[in-house]
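Lecture notes, continued. The same structure-token format from the folding unit now serves as the input rather than the output. Read the line below as a description of shape only.
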């Protein structure tokens, strides 16, 4: 179940009813409303879009209508986020920002739409399959925006961000949009988008952010993530029992991968992350890296294959 525990708007904010769009009318009316919102500026658009996304996830709509509305909201939301002020000083106690609330709520709405689409159309046609790909692509991209924002501006993530990302990957790997009698059918083409590779990149980014945040913020370092993700493996914990200092990805945990202090003695719901040597070598440098000056931790961390 998705969680969104962060407060959605400033306590002093009051938005009049006429400023809220209706979702049951034609999409042209929503476009006109968004055009009017653009004129008001980002300081008004931010809180208004927060309320709009909250209302959207509570509104009873068809999957296709929900997806169409989210598609219209995406660009104005991203432009609003780009114009919002950024934190000047890192303050872990400050809570999430307006931009983080917008990104988080967009993820929540996209996830709701994906589950609704799959439930409504267990055997999707070509159009519904493209809608599903659009949802998956944007879910992972909005998750990535949340992680990169927290890393760059040194802010806490909204509660549930990592847990919902792990749940999403588990859902995608377990569900196939094919009939039960057609399990051997090849999966539809992914249109040059591989959700597993995207998820692995986010895991590697999140792991680096915990052990070497300065390194992880560098654009040149992040450019290597696609290559490292292609070389990264996610293994069943049952196949790695007894291994030392493995990196575990726990679905129930609201956090990035973590390294066990000892051996993996019990299976769990999730995966064992096995990054490639070049990635681990990059994180091994410095007082806060995997090595910590002893050399032992890095050596054991590589003993996973």
């Amino acid at each position: 179940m998705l969680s969104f525990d962060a407060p959605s708007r400033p306590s002093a904010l009051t938005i009049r009813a006429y400023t809220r769009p209706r979702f049951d009318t034609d999409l042209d009316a929503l476009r006109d409303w968004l055009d009017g919102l653009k004129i008001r500026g980002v300081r008004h658009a931010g809180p208004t879009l927060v309320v709009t996304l909250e209302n959207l996830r509570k509104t009873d709509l068809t999957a296709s209508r929900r997806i169409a509305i989210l598609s219209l909201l995406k660009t104005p939301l991203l432009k609003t986020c780009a114009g919002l002020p950024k934190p000047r000083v890192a303050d872990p106690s400050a809570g999430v920002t307006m931009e983080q609330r917008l990104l988080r709520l967009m993820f929540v709405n996209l996830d709701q739409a994906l589950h609704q689409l799959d439930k409504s159309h267990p055997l999707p046609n070509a159009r519904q399959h493209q809608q599903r790909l659009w949802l998956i692509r944007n879910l992972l991209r909005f998750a990535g925006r949340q992680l990169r924002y927290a890393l760059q501006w040194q802010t806490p993530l909204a509660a549930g961000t990592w847990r919902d990302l792990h749940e999403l990957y588990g859902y995608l790997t377990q569900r196939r949009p094919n009939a039960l009698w057609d399990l051997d059918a090849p999966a539809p083409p992914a249109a040059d988008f591989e959700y597993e590779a995207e998820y692995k990149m986010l895991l590697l980014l999140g792991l680096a952010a915990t052990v070497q945040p300065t390194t992880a913020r560098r654009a040149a370092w992040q450019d290597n993530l696609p290559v490292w993700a292609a070389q990264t493996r996610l293994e069943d914990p049952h196949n790695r029992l007894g291994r030392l200092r493995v990196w575990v990805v726990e679905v129930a945990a609201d956090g990035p991968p973590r390294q066990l202090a000892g051996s993996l003695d019990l299976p769990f719901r999730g995966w064992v992350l096995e990054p490639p040597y070049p990635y681990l070598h990059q994180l091994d440098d410095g007082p806060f890296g995997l090595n910590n000056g002893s050399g032992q931790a890095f050596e054991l961390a590589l003993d996973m294959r």
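Point for the exam: The chain has twelve helices and four strands.
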